[in-house]
Sequence to fold (128 residues):
Amino acid sequence: MPAILAYLLHLLTAVAMVLVFFVIYTRATPFDEVLLVRQGNQAAAFSLGGALIGFSVTVSSALLHTADYYQFLGWSAGAMIVQILVYTVATSLLRMSKDQIEANNKAFGGLLGAISLSIGLVNAGCIS
Fold:
């Protein structure tokens, strides 16, 4: 396959994976993050932003460290599952995430974002 086609295939797939993650993640949260962000809720933006960056770091690592397109897809899909699972576990342990995010507790939103980013970095490192 010509290099430009391989580039476009990987780019479009990576963007599609991020979009799929966004949809699944925002449906997994107990609050409407997009609406909250539109209303200026910074806590929701920190939480969602950390999740997107954490997942994207892992997708980037999969792009860099896999030689095969299907391996890239597999690692990215696995990263998506891990990211959602960690969010679910973290919010169940913290128990008050819905109230804190809806109340625009920026520190709490930052914590959730940092948890997502941290697991994304660890996940990315495991791929390399």
About this structure: Residues 50 and 115 are 8 Å apart (CA to CA). The mean pLDDT is 94. The two ends are 24 Å apart (CA to CA). The helical segments are 3-28, 33-38, 42-65, 69-94, 97-102, 106-127.
